[in-house]
Amino acid sequence: MEVDHKQVRVILRPVADIPEDVKQENALLDWACSSYQSAMLIVAGGVLAKTRSLDTAASVLWWAGFQAPAGYFTDEDEDAHGDLSGSSEEALRLWVEREEKNIERTVQSKGFYLFATGRLLDEVEE
Asked: CA–CA separation, 23 vs 11, rounded Å?
């Protein structure tokens, strides 16, 4: 399979007569963003289940290369907290704080259990 390196076209605001292929690309982007956030919740949930520490969860996400989801923070958040670019550790800490309830719920989900049983729930070797 050959990879065609082109940017997906994103729908930023409602426009009449959007071509079907652009709608499909935008739907794929929405799916990818949702999947990424689900992965973040599962990872944070696993760390929380093991350590009971949201601070550790944020640090693990950062060291693993996760970033706060694009568009998550508002301009007001930036004014109040400084640089909240996706790659900053502060952005992940704030994301984890705000998503605490969702992270806790994730630990109770079947999806988390299926994902985590691979290695996360095994004893940690020292």
From this structure: 8
Q: 94: domain range?
A: 53-117
Q: What is the DSSP string of 36-83?
A: HHHHHHHHHHHHHHHH--HHHHHHHHHHTT--PPTT-S-HHHHHHHS-
54, 97 Cβ separation under 8 angstroms? yes
Q: Tell me whether residue 11 is in a domain.
A: no
Instruction: Give the chain's count of helices (H) and strands (E).
Output: 6, 0
Poorest-pLDDT segment among 21-25, 69-73, 108-112: 108-112
Which class for 121: exposed (0-12), middle (13-18), buried (19 or more C-beta within 10 A)?
exposed
Q: Cα separation of 42 and 113, whole Å?
A: 9
Q: What is the number of structural domains in the chain?
A: 1
| pTM of the shown model | 0.78
